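Quick one - inputs below.
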Amino acid sequence: MEEALNDNQIVELFRSGSDSALSELQKKYGAQMKRIAESILADRRDAEECLNDAYMGAWKNIPAADPENLKAYLLRMTRYCAFKRLRTNLAQKRGGHVQTMSYEELSECIPDHRRAESEQDSGLKEQIEDFLRNLSEEKRTIFLGRFWFLYSVAEIAQRLGRDEKYISNQLYYLKKLFRKHLERKEG
Amino acid sequence: MTEYDLNKALNNIDERLIEEAEEVLGNRPSEKKQGIRHVAVKGNVRRRTLRVVLTAACVVVLLVGTVAASGLVQKVIENVRKQNGMVTLVGSQDEEGVIEEAVVPIDQTVEIDDLTFTVENIIGDAEVVFAEISTNYQIDEPEGYVLKPVLGFNISGKALFPEEETDYGVMNGLAQFCRDGKLWYMLTISYNNVDISHADMMVEIKGKWNDTQVDRVIEWKNDYEPKKETIAVNQQLGDYLITNVVLSTTRMELQYEIESVRTSGQDAVVRHKLLLDSIKLDDGTVLQYNEINGFMVQALGYASEDDTKTFGGRYFNLIGGFSTGGVVKVVPFERIKSIVVEGVEITIR
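Output:
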């Protein structure tokens, strides 16, 4: 089986403008990008268009961005493209289905009094980072596994060598804790 | 706040948190997986390696890999092609006017059996030279950028300094084009703080042709007077104070300062992304900056710091970096009236 190029080699291909860059990228990370897109967007065409946007974004931005962690950079871009498309769909009432519950699940954590808050609340990212940094490594991984990497409970359990019930309980607890954290910050 | 805001904010969290979770979940790419690395996620010390100030110093090996692109990737490639459209190379005419006086004809050819490579023209600054290389190799591609692998040659260039052992750190960028049904290259040879405007130069072409390993060299001497203009701006742009715009024949540099930023080198370059949207010429023409091209040295940067400030710069190529109506422009820098950076127009003359 042909060995995938390493990340630096792929970034260099992007810099040279070679379309091999996209092929190599897809070969190495395409499946994970697709999984993220399809985890957020139920419609196959939406997911495909999201991937199209993500590949185009990679082509445009990688040469200048020189990402330190190519995979994290690509998954972040794919998530961004997917959420953007999802929001557009919802706004246009095109039936932007939410494939996984993780997107809705996270909305349960928004304190009621913050729902009217403006989108430009620049402290939100820092609040999330504060919350995560105060968790144990395992809890942080479970939270991010579910809400950033969009893995199912079963997948997280398998990857961490835990049973599903344990992960479900942890997620329940983490969501409550996260909601409290957002409330506390606001108050 | 909506779930979208929350997910968007989550999307943008510190990369180290994502890396750490990724490692624990067993997702790290294999070449980075040499032992579980515990990433310090508390505190402010970034774990990035300090590197030399320029973001990259690599010889680009063009056209590696033979993986067939899937339908989706192929579609993306087609879109890239459409965006790039027809390419106006150095020395050719377009409606904006070109800087023909800056183009130096070279006309040096090497033959590899029936295949020829000719350095047709060069255009350069003190530290950068673009070499336009034609071949007699016929290709069945649309005019403009050619993204797919064509010839398996490694083409690189450098200056031949009298003190041969000195490594000044050359950077190469290579783009390939179809022009009149034939394969052309644009090779960028770039140095940092070394004047190559009168240097002896060489391009090396290595690869396999007719089952034989070949290695050919084309040499010439640069002989042009580099042009450069520094325009003081001193305009605040968010956290950035844009101090100067430095214009030269082939590129534009935005020099900036940021208060109280403790960061350096590569880290600063990655974090301080001043993005150029477009430029406006003296006749009102707006040229959109196009990051999609094959010229490597187009948005490099550098940064240094003292206890309270970071000083940095971003380079943007004036060759191959702009397009209107699908035609890539060579921008005469004397005609640049204003630039739009991060959505803010900065008038420079």
